[in-house]
Amino acid sequence: MDMGTLLQINVEVNFGSTGRIAEDIGKLAMESGWKSYIAYGRKKRNSASTLIPIGNKWDHLFHLLQTRLFDKHGLASKRVTRRFIDQIEQIAPTLIHLHNIHGYYINFELLFDYLKQKGIPVVWTFHDCWPMTGHCTHFEHVACEKWQTTCEKCPQLQVYPSSWGVDRSKKNHLQKKSAFSELQNLTIVTVSNWLRKTVQKSFLSEVRCEVILNGIDTTTFTPTSFKALREKFQIENKFVILGVASVWSSNKGLADFLALAQYLQKDETIVLIGLTKKQIATLPKNILGIERTDSIEELAAWYATSDAYVNTSLEESFGLTTAEALACGTPVVVYNATACPEMVSPEVGFVNPKNDVHTLYKSVQQIKQKGKAFYSTACRERAVSLYAKDENFVKYLDLYTKLIK
Fold this sequence. Notes:
Largest sheet: 7 strands, parallel
Number of strands: 13
Strand content: 15-25%
Shape: globular
Radius of gyration: 21 Å
Helix content: 25-40%
């Protein structure tokens, strides 16, 4: 049965968390009778969907310069966006699903002007807070609430998408409000209840909004034994505390892991994945630093072999790494910030006050005393019941059907 044509737009395809989400949604859509296209800015892997590149590396570089010099993120790439709109016309999608439209590749004003004219149903999954602010993707780390009224004098100009000095946050905020809030056929999907509540405090509070949790592959992320991994890094008899991030920026809590290392006993060690070579060179001896891995299997092996997963991030729209750890049967420790507490019940781990490393270590010690096996079954059951990707992503197909009818 031909359901129609789905066009997804995201900065990445089958790469990184949002890229894998778009890929999985495309696969499910095709199984249900949709034609699937994914348009992307940068970074791709092989895809089951038909791919449409938006611009090239020189276009992206120009957009990057416009961001750095003039704080005009999402407002460059005009020629590229017009060309892409011509391609949309040729595809004639039944529905358009937006993901991250930041990332130096598309002009949001031109895109939304076109969407208003065409009247095509639009679903927009918010993976962060960028659509609601004048500059940043998250604001919890600096406790900024200007986005609720009008952004100005941005305290995070140097944070992605960083500007070298020009502060255009007020104008950016007003332009986003004009572009995004006036699209009549828009449905926002947030990936957590926290993010939905955040949307309700923004200029998008009147837009229809639903919650669909992110999904993970619970066949890849599954409890298994990886003795060889421990042997390789000579941590066979250690209590392993794992932390994972794609980029260990300050809001991800690297400093807290360094502080946590000072509490560790001789039979305990920390493993951090996603560090740069420069960061690894500065680590104390009881922290094993590993660069970012694009191997999902390797990542799953680390979750499964670890005794506790600690997420020190203050800014999580969902908490994908926490869900992946749970699926591998590993108990978790998080801070009481943004969407993190939603991931944790008393049966699977602990929620601690923000930046309270002492309490965090006490939680890790409770896991150590009871043993990982005490928590593993509940961890796995929670992940399978709440975060299995097919069960979650099929909700998008139900939403698509409702909107096109």
